[in-house]
Structure formats: C-alpha cells, structure tokens
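Re: that chain you flagged

S.,

Sorry for the slow reply, it's been a week of failed gels. I finally had a moment to sit down with the sequence you sent. For the record, here it is as I used it:
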Amino acid sequence: MTSSAAHTPEPLIEVRELKKYFPVKKGILNRVVNSVKAVDGISFDVYPNETLGLVGESGCGKTTAGRSLLRLLEPTDGEIYFRGKNIVQANTKEMRALRRHLQIIFQDPYSSLNPRMTVEGIIGEAIKFHGLVRGEDAIRRRVQDLLERVGLQPSYVTRYPHEFSGGQRQRIGIARALALNPDFIVCDEAVSALDVSVQAQVVNLLLDLQEEFNLSYLFIAHDLAIVRHISDRIAVMYLGQIMELAECETLFDNALHPYTQALLSAIPQPNPRRKIDRVILEGDVPSPLNPPSGCRFHTRCPASYGPCSEVVPNTVEVSPGHQVACHLYDDYYSPKDPSVWARLPRLPRVDAIAALPPGVAEIIEELTTDDPVELEEAPSDDPVVEDPVSEPLEAEAQAGGEEATGGEEATGEEPLQEEASETNEESQQEEDSDVEEDSEAKEESEAEEKDPARSVASEDTDTTT
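Prediction finished late last night. Pasting the structure tokens below so you have them in one place:
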C-alpha cells in the first residue's frame, strides 16, 4: 500500500455532497411520486497513488456512487472534481477527453465483456478510438503487451470471452481498464465473483499495477479482509450515507460508529478456537424509498438515544483523518449517561483519540476499568480482638505437636512410616494367598463341571478318608 493523504495535500478526486436519486413514477402520466435515495450526500477525497476502500451492506449505494463518480450515471446533485475540474459541468467533448483518465473494472466478468468480440477487439477498441496507437499491427502489439502485464498469454488475442475462466475474464477487464493509461480506476467488486485463490492473485496484481502505473483506486467490496489488505483509507457506507471514514489500521483498531463495529465483528477468523463477540444487528435495512428520520442507522443501533431519531448527525472529525457521523461524538449532543455508552458493542480507546466530547473520556475509563486487584491490607491502629475459644485449641494442638517431635528425638524409635509399611506388606501377602486359594478352587469347580465322573471319584475319596 501507498502513503496516505498526509503526504499528498492535493487530492486527485474530490466529491462534495454527491446525490443520486432514482425517480419512482406512477399512473398514466408517469408522475414522479417518490425517489429512491441510492446516494444521499456523500463527500470524500481520493489522493494520487492511493486506494480508498468503500464498504457496506448490499443495497447501501456503493456501486451507484462509483458509477456516478464517472458519470456513467448522471448525478442528481453534488460536485465531483478531477484535478480541480468539475466533472458534473463538463460537456460531451470535455467528458470524452476525461474518459482516458477515469476507468472502471466491473463486478461481473461474464457480462462485462462482449461475447461477439475477440480479446483484441475488446481491449483495442478504446486504443483505436482515442488514437493512442496507429495501425492494426501496433494495436495488436499493444494489446499483447497488456495481456502480459495482467498475467495472460499474448496468443489469447484471437480468442473469445467464452473460452476463458472467471479469473482470466477479470484479468481481461483489468487490461481493458489499463489500455488508456488512466489515473483513477473504480474497482466495483472486482474480486467478489472469483474463487479465493484467484482473488488473492487479482488483488496482488492490482497492487503491482498501482505501483507501476501510479494509479489511484476506489475499491468497492464486501470482504473487509481484502479491503484491509489493499486499502489506505476506508469509508463505511450505510443507506446512501457515509458513517465513518478513517485510515485503514485506525478503523480496524479503534472503530467508533456502532455500524462499523458490527461490520468488523462479522470478519471470519482463521482460528476456529478463537471466540468472536459477534454483533447481531436487529431488524432489516430500511427502504431507501422512505429512509428513517434523523440518523439512518438509529432503527438498528444498540446505543440509540434521544436525538438519534430526530436530528441528522453531523460529520465530526475526532482525530486527523478520522471522521464519524454519530451524535455520540458531537460536543452538543454527546450523552453523559454511562448506560448509553455501555450499550456500544466496543468502547472507543481513549488513548487513541485526539478529541472526545467533554466528560466522555472519564465515562469510558470508568466503564473499561478492569476488576480490582486484591492488595495486601495495611496495618491498622485498631486493637486486635482475640477469640477466647480458638486460642486454647490452638495452644493444645501446638503443645501436642511439640511433645510428639521431642519423643521421637529422645527415644530414637523408628518412624511410624516404617511400621505402616511393614503392616502393608503383611496385608498384601495375606491378600495374595487368598487370591491363590480362590483361583485353585475356581479351577477345580470348572473341572468338575466338565467331567462329572471326576467329581464322583473325589466324593468317594473324601468318604474313605
């Protein structure tokens, strides 16, 4: 991974209050009666040679945000800047020139490739359209070079998409995105449709290409383990809004928003013996047609309280680069009731936060205090009360022990342990003899059962005797 925004003050992509609503029409006149608020006012920056991970549940608006960012879907409202130029206000000619710098890797490698075109036609079409290379031979050499860069054979240029596996098709999609030497690529679930082993290969390929071509990624995914591996910063999205945004390790070590904590608890652990405190959210995700008032997450939040259902939370920067949209960390709305903080799935680390609302740090320290350690009692000045019943008993026991010890030393008698050992040996010998007699009697009884004549002879012998 690359350096974060602290080393690159000028962002490559700036998104400000981006919105994308899909109208719901009804009736003969197709009147707009409502809107699906897929993306509802998100803001973030992407810096050169950086990967920003965008995570969230299915249906929260991640893919819509990525496509609106490239104007594959026309935004309803908001501003998008690429190197200071507003993409939303760009006309068709200007947008065509910007396409060379802004590319996308689609989620489904099966439907994103034209089945009637060869690999050479799929990758070389954009090269020919923008005039980067002239001549059929030069275009073919360019396509073969791109296939080698993504780990495929140059001879595949004449094949069709149905002749490749899912991982190979996704590599072709990556080669198509690299064909125009872009600066920014939206990776829309680029590895979600692949096997685990192929996912690792594609993710490592993206990291190598980022270092080689100085790329910036908006990496959209569900798998938080993969997002942690590839991302420099992570934005957590819920129902069209960003709940939390922070550096990758900061988010995993000290997640503040309850929704982020619930997502992190769902990461599978490789060690089956390790116990995981899963956070099970109650209820279902609300409909984007009619989102809840106030905080979008308050209907499922375990720490919901007064203003959550009425007031839209502000985005608070609790530390440099760590932003969270939650009333808990707002100075004006922050609760002073410890029971509200105790309902959080995981309490924030006080030592890792630069600024908390007044009085909150003390509440968290009280809630996170470990069990008291038992210390030695200090000597007190109060007189010691002696027990009149236990003292005589302790004295007699002590005197008896001294007499027994003195008698052994004076008389020189053998210890009682030797006498006990001799007694044990004698009892063991008697038990062995009893066992032998029982075994002999058992053998005779078995022989008599097998041979009745022998038993009659033995009776005669006893009578004669």
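What I noticed first: The chain is about 40% helix and 15% strand.

Talk soon,
D.
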